[in-house]
């Protein structure tokens, strides 16, 4: 009898631990964690666009879609893209819609991978998946 009670208690305890995290969202690493959903703002450096920076608005929707609007600070040119995003542990990966093209764009923004660095911040990662080492604070997105 004690064995049966112990096994049932253990099974219930393990099932309870695996279902959700403390916020009631899916466990990290599942790709469906929407705890980072929201609107983020950044002013990123831009060497190729002859500008003092690029203003970025990134909207991560709860349905795992995103939209990104960007424009150089000294221009009225605007770039808009959309796609899907997934969170895996502390990394957020953006996948742009295949129908979007960079042809005839005055500039492009290559934002593919971000890392959650604080409850209301994301940090842009370089092509190697690492944070930028020089002036890292310039690659931070703040939640609005």
Work out the count of structural domains.
Answer: 1
- The second-level CATH architecture is Beta Barrel
**Total beta strand runs:** 8
Give the termini separation: 56 Å
Q: What is the spatial order of strands in the main beta sheet?
A: 1-2-3-4-5-6-7-8
Which CATH C-level class is it?
Mainly Beta
Based on secondary structure, the structural category is: mainly beta
Residue fraction in strands: 35-45%
What is the string of helix and strand elements? HEEEEEEEE
Shape: globular
Overall mean pLDDT: 75
Helix fraction bin: 10-25%
Total helical elements: 1
How does the major sheet shape up?
A: 8 strands, antiparallel, barrel
**CATH topology (level 3) name:** Lipocalin
What is the radius of gyration computed over CA atoms, rounded to a whole number of angstroms? 20 Å
Which segments are poorly predicted (pLDDT under 50) over 5 or more consecutive residues?
A: 1-30
Characterization of this structure:
It is built from one helix and eight strands. With 144 residues, it is mainly β. It has one domain: Lipocalin (Beta Barrel). The longest helix is centred in the N-terminal third of the chain and has 18 residues, at 2-19.
């Amino acid at each position: 009898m004690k064995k049966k009670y112990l096994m049932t208690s253990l099974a219930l305890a393990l099932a309870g631990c695996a279902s959700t995290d403390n916020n009631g969202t899916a466990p990290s690493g599942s790709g469906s964690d929407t705890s980072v959903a929201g609107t983020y703002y950044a002013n990123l450096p831009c060497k190729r666009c002859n500008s003092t920076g690029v203003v970025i608005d990134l909207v991560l929707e709860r349905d795992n879609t995103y939209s990104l609007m960007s424009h150089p600070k000294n221009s009225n040119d605007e770039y808009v893209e959309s796609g899907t995003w997934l969170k895996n542990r502390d990394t957020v990966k953006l996948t742009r819609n295949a129908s979007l093209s960079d042809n005839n764009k005055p500039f492009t923004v290559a934002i593919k991978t971000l890392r959650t660095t604080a409850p209301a911040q994301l940090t842009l990662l370089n092509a190697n998946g690492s944070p930028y080492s020089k002036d890292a604070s310039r690659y931070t997105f703040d939640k609005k």
